[in-house]
Design goal:
Layout lengths: L3 H32 L4 H6 L3 H24 L3 H26 L3 H6 L3 H21 L3
Helix pairs in contact: 1-3, 1-4, 3-4, 3-6, 4-6
Length: 137
């Protein structure tokens, strides 16, 4: 038998979680773009695939732990704390790659080079998966 009241309650919880997670994702994207020395939006509009790959990888690397936080936290405050930490970790990851691992990274992305973009995509996803796994009980 279908539990209408339970479904309605679940839908409301779903919508709230989805809205809050969506807002955190948009906020992360905007903050992340402040830390990059190039303008992803302009590069993507100019059909630069490297910029799209890097930004997409950062977003995926961020939402993986966000999803884990949604599944493992019991309050909005706890979720917000984990969401903020996940964002900081992705920004630090980008900064380490750009400043310590591949010093010409930004110029290569601006030129549309795919190899460094895929490299950072892979690192962003790996960090996101580890971050998500660390958020479990």
């Amino acid at each position: 038998m279908f539990d209408v009241e339970g479904f309605q309650s679940g839908v409301l919880a779903f919508l709230l979680a989805f809205l809050v997670a969506g807002l955190f994702t948009v906020a992360f994207k905007l903050i992340y773009q402040l830390f990059t020395p190039y303008k992803e939006s302009a590069l993507i509009r100019a059909n630069n695939p490297a910029a799209a790959i890097v930004l997409g990888g950062a977003l995926l690397g961020y939402v993986l732990p966000l999803a884990s936080a949604l599944a493992h936290t019991v309050s909005l405050g706890e979720f917000a704390a984990w969401a903020a930490l996940a964002g900081v970790i992705q920004i630090v990851t980008f900064t380490v790659v750009r400043l310590l691992v591949m010093k010409d990274f930004s110029a290569r992305i601006e030129r549309g080079e795919i190899a460094p973009a895929l490299y950072l995509l892979s690192i962003s996803l790996a960090v996101g998966v580890l971050n998500a796994a660390c958020m479990t009980d």
